[in-house]
Design a protein that fits this description.
single chain, 226 residues, alpha+beta, minor pseudopilin epsh fold, 4-stranded antiparallel beta sheet
Length: 226
């Protein structure tokens, strides 16, 4: 076989520059269509995960309140995008808009104040008696903030203290030993505008989550996803 024939055979099994350019162009189109969808899917997953995490903590607060016969609370800080577990007796409401939680300042000091508090049930007091570290199932997370995922914010909190939904103040929900709780609605919103509602029924203390429709988001005055 001559060199000319070998060159023609090699050329026949290769790709032209135009063919390569067409393939690259098609890949770019597919990528540009796929990336936004993947970004939206990931954001939706984070939003749903945040709602489930809050529901899990509130269910834990409810069961702990029933078991330990004392009022537990879950606090929400819209400004710093966080939430945490505490005890009602550790809260200090200096005014209608200012709520401080001593469990956030020093966990050891909070436990000392709890052990000195005669209002606690004997079961709770026995758990803490003669110990410096937390041994109860709630102590390990008492006052420790949980951060929301990136791109997720607390858009609004509606409670008996803030019925209009003030998103500038720390708010909380109380769970009682009889299984009931305060009414609460927490609206979580992603950067794209999707909104999940985490709500608690007063009569049962049960927590539910659901995604809001566009009409409901508009009624709340929140930004609607594009």
């Amino acid at each position: 076989m001559s060199r000319e024939q070998e060159a023609k055979k090699s050329y026949a099994h290769g790709f032209t520059l135009i063919e390569v350019a067409i393939v690259i162009f098609i890949m770019l189109i597919m990528t540009s269509a796929t990336v936004p969808w993947m970004r939206t899917f990931a954001e939706s997953t984070r939003l749903r995960s945040a709602a489930r995490s809050i529901r899990s903590l509130m269910e834990f607060a409810r069961s702990s309140s029933i078991t330990q016969r004392t009022e537990y609370v879950v606090l929400f800080d819209p400004v710093n995008e966080g939430y945490w577990l505490s005890l009602l007796e550790l809260l200090n409401e200096e005014s209608g808009d200012t709520i401080t939680d001593s469990s956030r300042t020093s966990l050891s000091e909070s436990l000392e104040s709890l052990s000195d508090n005669t209002n606690l049930s004997e079961a709770v007091a026995e758990e803490r008696e003669g110990t410096e570290n937390v041994i109860s199932r709630t102590g390990g997370i008492l006052g420790i903030p949980k951060a929301l995922p990136k791109g997720i914010e607390i858009a609004r909190v509606i409670s008996p203290r803030h019925p209009a939904g003030d998103n500038e103040a720390v708010d909380y929900i109380t769970f009682y030993p009889d299984g009931t709780a305060e009414d609460l609605e927490v609206y979580l919103q992603s950067s794209s505008g999707r909104v999940f509602l985490v709500s608690v029924a007063e009569s049962t203390g049960r927590t539910g989550i659901r995604e809001l429709a566009v009409e409901e988001i508009e009624e709340l005055g929140l930004q609607v996803s594009q």
